[in-house]
Design goal:
This protein is an alpha/beta fold. The chain is about 40% helix and about 25% strand. It has helices at about 15-20, 25-30, 75-95, 115-120, 140-160; strands at about 35-45, 50-60, 65-70, 105-110, 125-130. The chain has a 5-stranded mixed sheet, sandwiched between helices. A hairpin with a 4-residue loop joins strand 2 and strand 3 (about 65-70). The chain starts with 12 loop residues before the first helix and ends with a helix. About 15% of the residues are buried.
């Protein structure tokens, strides 16, 4: 929940980045401990083409770089390819000998495309996708989402039993 960013109803990915950086301590508290901020819009160049990593962190406990990409809307398959490119570049050019391979987190404003996400991320343990809120949803929406999550968890448990 990123309600502390105080974003208006309409905002861009850049607005979101700017708000996160202005409230960096709160953002890091929200995503967890042991994060160290490294860069915003980290420029990488591949075949004379520029690419920009939204946010780059280092996680002390995991001993690895963490890429956070901010996306407006639902997850799209091309986001995974973009993240894979960033992770491979970081692994080749930025990762130090004692570090674990980098991981990526795609934060999307809208939930959905669950089947696409499931298919795209099958077997991939270095990329995660999360839905974020800038305002707390209505109680009914939270209850509905919680009930779906409980049913999905029960189904997975039955599958392993």
């Amino acid at each position: 929940l990123l309600d502390f960013l105080d974003l208006k109803d309409a905002y861009s990915e850049k607005d979101l980045e700017t708000a996160i950086l202005a409230e960096l301590q709160s953002f890091i508290s929200e995503i967890g401990s042991d994060f160290a901020f490294l860069s915003r819009q980290k420029r990488i160049q591949i075949d004379s083409e520029d690419y920009y990593i939204d946010l780059l962190f280092y996680h002390r406990g995991l001993n690895r770089l963490v890429v956070i990409e901010l996306k407006l809307g639902k997850f799209k398959p091309q986001y995974k390819s973009q993240m894979e490119l960033y992770l491979k570049w970081l692994e080749k050019y930025e990762m130090r000998k004692n570090e674990n391979p980098p991981i990526g987190l795609l934060l999307c404003t809208e939930n959905g495309n669950d089947k696409i996400i499931e298919l795209m991320l099958e077997g991939n343990h270095r990329i995660k996708i999360a839905h974020y809120f800038t305002k707390l949803p209505e109680l009914k929406a939270i209850e509905s989402k919680l009930k779906k999550a409980i049913k999905a968890a029960q189904k997975r448990l039955q599958h392993f039993s």
